[in-house]
TrEMBL record:
Protein name: ABC transporter ATP-binding protein
UniProt xrefs under InterPro entries: AAA+_ATPase, ABC_AA/LPS_Transport, ABC_transporter-like_ATP-bd, BCA_ABC_TP_C, P-loop_NTPase
Record keywords: ATP-binding, Cell membrane, Membrane, Nucleotide-binding, Transport
Assigned GO CC terms: plasma membrane
Record-linked Pfam families: ABC_tran (PF00005), BCA_ABC_TP_C (PF12399)
Superkingdom, taxonomy of origin: Bacteria
Organism annotation: Corticibacter populi
Domain ABC transporter, first and last residues per copy: 8-259
Keyword Ribosomal protein: no
GO BP of this protein: D-alanine transmembrane transport; L-alanine transport; L-isoleucine import across plasma membrane; L-valine import across plasma membrane
Amino acid sequence: MRQTQPALSCQDVTMRFGGLVALDSFSLEVHPGDVVGLLGPNGSGKTTFFNVVTGLYKPAAGTIRFGGTDLFGKPPAEINRAGIARSFQRCRLLLELSVFDNLLIGAHNRLNNGLLHNLFARKAAQHSITSFIGAARDLCARFNPYIADHLFDPAGAFNMIDRRRIELCRALLGEPRLLLLDEPSAGMTHEETFSLMDDVTSFQRQNPDLSIILIEHEMQVIERVSQRCVVLNFGKKICEGSYREVIADPQVLEAYLGEDA
Ligand SMILES: Nc1ncnc2c1ncn2[C@@H]1O[C@H](COP(=O)(O)OP(=O)(O)OP(=O)(O)O)[C@@H](O)[C@H]1O
Ligand SMILES: [Mg+2]
C-alpha cells in the first residue's frame, strides 16, 4: 500500500481531434518521487497526454488532479504555477537570445509582478532579477559549470546536450513538483543521452519529492531511469508495470512489432 497521496491523478482522460481519439479513457497516477516511463509507438498519444496535463489541449472528458487540486481545463500558466513543468519534443530555445533570456522566459510566472510594480518598485524589481541571476547560475552549475559561466552567451552557441540542459534548467527554475520530459534524447548520441539522464537522476535524488514522467523511444534510457512504465497504443493504456514486465507483454510486442510478434 502506498502511504503518499498521488501527486498527479488522471482518470479516464479522453482527447479527440475531430474523429480521431488521441487519448481514450486514459488513467494514470504518479506519486511524489516516482519516475514513470511513458512508452508507445509513434502517434499513440504520449505528447497529447503532456499537452492535456499542461493545459495546451482541453480534453473532452476525464479528471486531472494535482496535489489534490482540480486542474481540468485550467490555463497553462495556472498549471505551471501549481507545480508542473515540461520540456518539449523539439528544442524550444530561442537560439539568438542568451541562456539567461531563455531562462527568464521560463520564469515568467515567478517574476511577473506586473508593469506598475516593475516601473515604480524599482528596488524590489532589481532585487528579484539579481536573485534570479544567482538562482539561474546555481542551477546551471549543477548540470554543467560551463553554462553557468556563460549565462549571457547566445543559446545557439551551445552544443545539443547543453541546449537540452538549458531547457531542463528553464523547466526546473520554477521548482516544479512534477517534471514532464518529452523525448529528451532527440537529436543526441547514446552517450549524450545517458549523460543527460544521469544529470536528471542525480537532480532527482537531491530532490526526492520531484516526480518525473519521461517519454522516450530509447528503451535503454527507460530501463536505466524509470521505476514504472506505462504503454499507450492508439490512445489506450495497454500495459503498466516494471520495465521487464512491459517489454515481455504480448500486447506491447504486438503494438511495436505487429501481429507477427
Ligand atoms: N493538434 C493536433 N491536431 C490533430 N491531431 C493531432 C494533434 N496533436 C496530435 N494529433 C494526433 O493525435 C495522435 C497522437 O499524437 P501524439 O503527438 O500524441 O503522438 P506521440 O505518441 O507523441 O507520437 P511520437 O512518438 O511520434 O511523438 C496522432 O494521430 C496525431 O496525429
Ligand atoms: Mg510525441
